TrEMBL record:
Protein name per UniProt: Helix-turn-helix domain-containing protein
Gene3D superfamilies in alphabetical order: lambda repressor-like DNA-binding domains
Domain HTH cro/C1-type stretches: 18-71
Domain of life: Bacteria
Length: 292
């Protein structure tokens, strides 16, 4: 049984990939069961993510399915090793199960694409911006200790993505960046942080101008994840004030990738976006807070 006593996104991803390769090879579950000396019901549970599978069995199944790409095999074998591991997020009681799945996707991803029309993308938020959200944009009152815990989780998420070397691409609607915030200092520092991070080789930030109303309303905010050596998207996630939803249906994921590409086409170029963000930061007037 996967860690946590329920299917994890890792075990589901592995099972779904093995199923796709089996179906592409036009083989049934009995063939897979025979090659790893297991029952048909176990293959069904592996493909649904209900049980973990040994790396050696993954190798045997891929050979049966005619998968010869060594990079793909290595990636899936590693996923089998990791499927039963507890990530740091699984020990955090403040993270709901669905959001823990989101963090797992984020931690494993090789390519993250996000569209944001409401908030600064989570991986770009400064600690003070996050605190501002919890204090001014939430119906729940949080203690200082809870705020510190949120900041700690956000920083650990950022470190996990950096360790993995993932490429991060974001399209952000202009009002998210330019609408006044409760603190001019926090606003300015947040924009300066984005402009700095955007110059990293694995980060691409694009600003969608306010005038691109049609593009901005193609979809609400979402995050698309790709894994391993392939850029093919495997999951799309949406969050709200009360829950996180993860979709793994291929058609739904591909639809959101197409929307993301349409948003990128309508947005400013990465270089022009950095200039825009820097200009926006410089145009924020000083406040009494800045003079203290």
């Amino acid at each position: 049984m996967p860690a946590g006593g329920r299917p994890t996104v890792r075990s589901r991803r592995l099972g779904a990939t093995l199923r796709r390769y089996r179906e592409a090879a036009r083989l049934d579950q009995d063939h897979a069961a025979e090659v790893i000396a297991a029952s048909k019901s176990k293959i069904s549970r592996i493909e649904s993510g209900q049980v973990t599978v040994k790396p050696g069995d993954v190798r045997l199944m891929l050979e049966l399915y005619g998968v010869t790409d060594l990079a793909v095999a290595k990636h899936l074998e590693q996923l089998a090793r990791d499927s039963n591991k507890r990530g740091w997020w699984m020990d955090d009681a403040q993270l709901p199960g669905e959001f823990a799945d989101f963090v797992s996707l984020e931690s494993d991803a090789s390519y993250i694409r996000t569209w944001q029309n409401l908030f600064i993308p989570g991986l770009l938020q400064t600690p003070d911006y996050l605190r501002t959200l919890t204090r001014h944009a939430s119906v729940t009152t949080y203690t200082p200790q809870a705020e510190d815990a949120f900041v700690k989780v956000k920083e650990e998420r950022r470190r996990a993505v950096n360790r993995n070397g993932a490429h991060f691409a974001a399209v952000i609607w202009e009002p998210v960046l330019t609408a006044p915030m409760p603190s001019a200092r926090v606003h300015r520092e947040q924009l300066e942080h984005i402009a700095k991070v955007a110059q990293q080789s694995n980060v691409t930030i694009q600003v969608l101008p306010l005038a691109e109303w049609k593009a901005a309303h193609l979809a609400s905010h979402f995050v698309v994840f790709s894994f391993g050596p392939e850029l093919a998207p495997e999951a799309v996630a949406f969050d709200s004030a009360t829950s996180t939803v993860i979709q793994e249906d291929p058609d739904d994921v591909v639809k959101h990738v197409r929307i993301f590409e349409a948003l990128r086409s309508a947005a400013l170029t990465p270089d022009r976006s950095i200039e825009f963000i820097q200009d926006a930061a410089n145009s924020i007037p000083e406040s009494k807070e800045d003079q203290c």
